[in-house]
Structure formats: C-alpha cells, structure tokens
Amino acid sequence: MATKGKTIVLGITGSISAYKAADLAARFTKDGFRVDAVFTESAMKFASPMTLRNLTGRPVVTTMWELSTEFSVEHVALSEAADVVLVAPASANIIARLANGIADDMLTCTVLATKAPVIIAPAMNDNMWANQVTQDNVAKLKKRGFIFVGPAYGRLASGKMGLGRLTELDEIYGVTLQVLGKKGDLAGKNIVVTAGGTQEPVDPVRCLTNRSSGKMGYAIAEAARNRGAAVTLVSGPTSVTKPAGVKVVDVKTAEEMLKAVLDATKKADALIMAAAVADFRPARASGSKIKRRELGDLTLKLEKTPDILEQARGNFIRVGFAAESDNVIANAVDKVKRKGLDLIVANNITEKGSGFGTDTNRVTIIDSKGKAEELPIMSKYEVADKLLDRISSLLKKK
Ligand code: C5P
C-alpha cells in the first residue's frame, strides 16, 4: 500500500461515536500511516486523547494554546503536513463552523488552512441531520470539494432509528484510502475485476458452486482503487465486505457474470478474472424442488458454461487466474497461450496458506510468453499490489 509516510489528520468532534475514531486511528497506524489526532473541546467529553496518543504513537492535539505541543509553534503546521484531513465523527456543530469559515480552535484552523482533501463522516441526531440549516451547510461544503461519507441509517444515541449514525468504519477507511490514492499510477484507468464463485441452479433450493471466498478478487479491487483506478467489481455471492468507492455488480451464475463482464469491459483498460467460474452447470434447472422420496438415484446432466475470458476480448489487458491442484505451472503456461492472455496468476490450491478461503496466497505470475515470476507467500492484498505493478507497466507500454 502506498501509505508509508503519509499523514492523516484525524479530527474528532463531540459525538457519542467519538470512541470509534480510536478504531480508525489504530487501523491507519497499522497500515503505516502517520495519524495526528485533533480533538475539539467537546470530543474530549466522549473519547480519551490518551487512547489516541497510545494507539497512534503521536502527540494528540487538544488545544491551540498549549505551549508544549509540537504544533503550537505554528498552528497551521498540521494543515501543511496533512495528505488528507478526515473528520470522524463530525458533529452538526463542526459542519456549521467549517461551512462558515470559523477558525476558533485547532481543528477548524487546520481545515481552513489546508490544501489537502477533506473527508467528513457526520454523526448526529436524525433531526439535526435533516434540518435544512445542516443540509445547506453540507451542500456548501460539498460544493467546495469536501467529501462526505455517510451518515448511515441505524440506531441513534437517543435509542430510536434514523439517518444520522456514523457510517461503517470499513466505508470511512475505504474512502480515505481511495482519496489518498487518487493520483496513483492507475489514475484514469478503468479496471474490471471478477471475484468469488458462481452458483449454477439445480432447482430453486440447490446449486452447484465451489469453495472460492472472493477474498483475492476483493483485494485486487481494493488495491486498484487505492492506486487511483475506477474499479468495477463483478462479484459472485460472497460474505466479504463490499469495498467502498468501487462499483459492485452482483451476479450469481456464469451466464450473468458473462453479461456483466461484457458490459463493463466496453470501456475497460484491464480485465482481471479472479472469479472461480463454474465450468459446468446443470443442463436444465428444475423449476420446483426435486423431492428425495420421488427418486431413486439422481443423475444430473451437466453442460459447459460459457468461457468468459475467451469471449471478453478487446483493446484491454486480459488477466486470468489458474487455480490448480497439480502441474500448476505447466497448466498455467498452456492456459495463458491458449486464451491469448497478457498475464496469468497460477496458484496451487492444495498448498498451505494458498488458494481458497485463506488470507494469504502463494502465486506465480506468468506472462504471455510463458515467462514465470514466482512470488513468496504474502497477504492477498500484497499479491494484488504485485499483480497491479505488472498490469501498470503493461498499460504504460500500450
Ligand atoms: O481453464 P480454467 O477454468 O482453469 O481458467 C481459469 C480462468 O478462466 C480464470 O481466470 C477464470 O476466471 C476464467 N474462467 C472464465 N470462464 C469460465 C471458466 C473460467 O472466464 N467459464
């Protein structure tokens, strides 16, 4: 992840969800970001600066008037250091102050002075959010380029349900990485990724599927987003969280995936087929549930599914995956040539820490001439980045 050395200024304001900012800070710090937390006066009633200090390993700013803090010498130093300013949670009050250019504490001064992108994750009572004055402030800030993420609908501090809850941390995290990666090496590129297994119906209850978790394809989609690409993720059914800032097209069958891929690749620069597409499907799906007591043995007639990679052709880079249990490299080299691919990613699904369901993978990337680059075991996100390095250099040559 191109995060090392980047600075996130995390503004925390007075909301009951302020404690969640600690989780965000911990995640960003773990990823290698420098996180500088700035508390407003009321935020300190809800969350502890000490927690943030320990989680980020950085000084935390709680006032403009403290002589011993690192930033008090020049109160705009933070605004210059920021690669992004994220206000999470953002109260109605901070939104109003920012919309009107008020600069009476460290957070408002920082936002007013910064040239970095500003992301706002609102959290407040639903009536406060719906109030026209808040909506006018939000519109004003959006017009000035502020990026809003959330709020979400859900249970509020008052106990009632409504729109005003701090949105999922995964979404705030994803949008922040997307904003930071806007000028990455894949900026302006359209990348289509497929992920997960397909489900081929036998009857309304049963289907033929496989053990693909979707983790590899989702990691590629996130990594491409974080490098500036516009990503379309064509996904079979999975339990992986949908990445923020990515266009997700949900499909079930190989036939649906084919249609979605053909549509999405009309203006694509690259197609990465990480999905485990079923190779066979029942020739005829029963319209009603097949009953056990009415049958002796059951024989299903299977037919081939369309080969999506074979059909998806055009002026874009085509990348396949070869999940194999034997003769991994030989099979992959054969496949890359047979399908006319630019790259194929081969892995042995029987190897420990590799293949379906795991968070790690051990792959070999093979190019169109059959030249192989063997990678050590690493996280699926790191594999995704390595693959995107190769795609990025192929795109530069195009
Ligand atoms: O030949 P094999 O099925 O092993 O090829 C795997 C590659 O082909 C993967 O990238 C997979 O997504 C893709 N594929 C496809 N359509 C199918 C089956 C596999 O595009 N029906």
Give the helix/strand layout.
Elements: E1 7-12, H1 20-30, E2 34-39, H2 49-56, H3 77-81, E3 84-90, H4 92-99, H5 106-113, E4 118-122, H6 126-130, H7 132-143, E5 147-148, E6 152-155, E7 161-165, H8 169-180, E8 190-195, E9 200-201, E10 207-208, H9 215-225, E11 230-235, E12 247-250, H10 254-264, E13 270-273, E14 280-282, E15 302-304, H11 308-311, E16 317-324, H12 328-338, E17 343-348, E18 360-361, E19 363-367, E20 372-374, E21 378-379, H13 380-397
Helix pairs in contact: 1-2, 4-7, 9-13
The chain binds cytidine-5'-monophosphate.
Cytidine-5'-monophosphate (C5P) is lined by residues 254, 273, 275, 277, 279, 305, 307-309, 320-322, 335.
CATH class of the largest domain: Alpha Beta
Strand content: 15-25%
How is the largest sheet built, in terms of strand order? 12-11-8-13-16-17-19-20
Q: Summarize model confidence as the mean pLDDT.
A: 93
Principal-axis shape: globular
Helix count from the secondary structure assignment: 13
* CATH H-level superfamily of the largest domain: CoaB-like
Parts with pLDDT < 50 across at least 5 consecutive residues = none
Largest sheet: 8 strands, mixed
Structural class: alpha/beta
What is the CATH-assigned architecture of the largest domain? 3-Layer(aba) Sandwich
CATH topology of the largest domain: Rossmann fold
**Share of helix, binned:** 25-40%
Q: Indicate how many domains the architecture comprises.
A: 2
What ions, cofactors and ligands are bound? cytidine-5'-monophosphate
**Total E-strand runs:** 21
